[in-house]
């Protein structure tokens, strides 16, 4: 029975490192970080996924900030004052404007990527937490130190709002411990529920 369960676990979870959800969530859990991946390649892949998520969070924050920014009021029209002693100003050529635009397009993503890499390296260099410590409390305390990572942690460390599995387990228990079998001991009832829920592994 133990060997069958072990084979089933290995079959179902042998490729869990390749699942982006679990990989990023493991990195963001300060109890584990990158210490528990099965290999160096899996850890590097997880870090790349995390960096991409941080860049998305940065882009979203920038877009939200730009959307909430109030437009500046246009200044009242004034007559231009020309100083005869100063040399005439020349407007930028189309080539200079194009040059500035290209620089602007390439500089902003580089800054975002650099910020993501720096935060991730600083976070991973820190020692891990204790097994019984709360990763949620960690991010509440370190939100200001790693703002991009904290934004991604809110997304990946959130528990899904559903109770389907627990409801199914309660239904299984009610089918086993009913009025006609109300003298079952707690140990025997637990064994029967365990076998009922894991019976499919033996098929």
Automatic annotation (TrEMBL):
<feature type="compositionally biased region" description="Basic and acidic residues">
    <location>
        <begin position="60"/>
        <end position="81"/>
    </location>
</feature>
<feature type="region of interest" description="Disordered">
    <location>
        <begin position="60"/>
        <end position="93"/>
    </location>
</feature>
<dbReference type="InterPro" id="IPR008906">
    <property type="entry name" value="HATC_C_dom"/>
</dbReference>
<dbReference type="Pfam" id="PF05699">
    <property type="entry name" value="Dimer_Tnp_hAT"/>
</dbReference>
<protein>
    <recommendedName>
        <fullName>HAT C-terminal dimerisation domain-containing protein</fullName>
    </recommendedName>
</protein>
<dbReference type="GO" id="GO:0046983">
    <property type="term" value="F:protein dimerization activity"/>
</dbReference>
<feature type="domain" description="HAT C-terminal dimerisation">
    <location>
        <begin position="121"/>
        <end position="199"/>
    </location>
</feature>
<dbReference type="InterPro" id="IPR012337">
    <property type="entry name" value="RNaseH-like_sf"/>
</dbReference>
């Amino acid at each position: 029975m133990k060997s069958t369960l072990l084979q089933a676990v290995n079959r179902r979870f042998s490729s869990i490192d390749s699942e982006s959800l679990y990989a990023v969530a493991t990195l963001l859990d300060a109890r584990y970080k990158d210490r528990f991946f099965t290999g160096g390649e899996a850890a590097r892949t997880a870090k790349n996924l995390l960096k991409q998520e941080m860049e998305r969070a940065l882009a979203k924050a920038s877009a939200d900030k730009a959307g909430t920014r109030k437009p500046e009021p246009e200044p009242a029209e004034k007559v231009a004052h020309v100083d005869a002693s100063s040399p005439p100003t020349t407007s930028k050529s189309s080539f200079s404007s194009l040059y500035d635009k290209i620089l602007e397009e390439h500089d902003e993503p580089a800054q975002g990527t650099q910020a993501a890499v720096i935060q991730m390296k600083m976070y991973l260099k820190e020692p891990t937490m204790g097994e019984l410590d709360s990763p949620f409390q960690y991010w509440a305390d370190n939100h200001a130190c790693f703002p991009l990572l904290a934004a991604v942690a809110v997304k990946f460390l959130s528990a899904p709002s559903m109770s389907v599995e627990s409801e199914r387990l309660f239904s299984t228990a009610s089918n086993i411990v009913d009025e006609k079998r109300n003298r079952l001991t707690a140990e025997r009832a637990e064994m029967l529920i365990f076998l009922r829920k894991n019976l499919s592994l033996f098929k």
